[in-house]
Design goal:
The protein is mainly α. It has one domain: Orthogonal Bundle (MetI-like fold). About 75% of the residues lie in helices and about 0% in strands. It has helices at about 5-40, 45-55, 60-70, 85-110, 115-125, 130-140, 140-155, 160-165, 175-185, 190-215. Helix 4 packs antiparallel against helix 8 (about 160-165). The longest helix is centred in the first third of the chain and has 34 residues, at about 5-40. The protein is globular. The mean pLDDT is about 90.
Length: about 220
């Protein structure tokens, strides 16, 4: 089914990649600036805030799904927008899911930069923004690794997509939700094809992440 480019398999895989990439892009635009603000500023409760962000790494996808479901269901605050059981609803959930991971790893990447680099930049007359730019440039590969990790988390989740997306064929069905459904129906051939694609994506993510860590 993979070699023959089965239309259903390709459609499900393409939709999963598109949803994960969109969620990852939106989360990146939010996470990188917020993480930089947290790292480069001192304020009361900073350590506690970072601990909370790191705690959210392992939040179950069904919990995020429940939270989003309550807000976008017809009885929820955002019910009038009609986001439930739509790709947009899945994207919202995945953004909330990967945001703590991206933020926490980005903060760790910035903290991992040698402090002598900052001291050198300041001693050479760099202002606050120039110093931040130097630090971010030094940590860019580790920060990109945080984005890759977020993408891997988004494309591999299942509970959130089931709850918020509804697993609608041709509309919100993703690799993970399709594998779950087709296996329960006894369609093992389709499940294996989708599972192999998901494993291949996970392998690519792992290889890219390892290359970035070596850089």
């Amino acid at each position: 089914m993979i070699v023959s480019l089965d239309p259903e398999v390709m459609q499900i895989a393409g939709r999963s990649l598109a949803l994960a990439a969109t969620s990852c892009a939106i989360a990146t635009l939010i996470a990188l600036p917020l993480s930089s603000l947290i790292h480069f500023n001192s304020f009361r409760g900073k350590r506690l805030l970072i601990n909370v962000i790191q705690t959210l790494y392992s939040v179950p996808t069904v919990v995020v799904g429940l939270f989003v479901f309550v807000f976008i269901s017809r009885a929820g605050p955002l019910g009038s927008l009609g986001l439930l059981f739509t790709p947009a609803g899945i994207v919202i959930g995945q953004v909330l899911l990967v945001l703590p991971i991206m933020m926490g790893l980005t903060i760790s990447a910035l903290r991992g930069v040698d402090v002598t680099l900052t001291d050198t930049a300041i001693s050479l007359g760099a202002n606050r923004f120039q110093t931040a730019y130097v630090v971010i440039k030094e940590a860019r590969f580790a920060m990109l690794g945080a984005v890759i990790m977020g993408f891997g988390r988004a494309i591999s989740e299942v509970g959130l997509s089931l709850m918020v997306g509804g697993n609608i064929r041709g509309f919100t069905r993703t690799l993970t939700t399709a594998i779950s459904l087709e296996t329960s129906k006894g369609e093992i051939e389709l499940s294996l094809a989708l599972g192999m694609i998901l494993l291949f994506i996970a392998l690519v993510v792992s290889i890219v992440l390892n290359r970035l860590q070596q850089r």
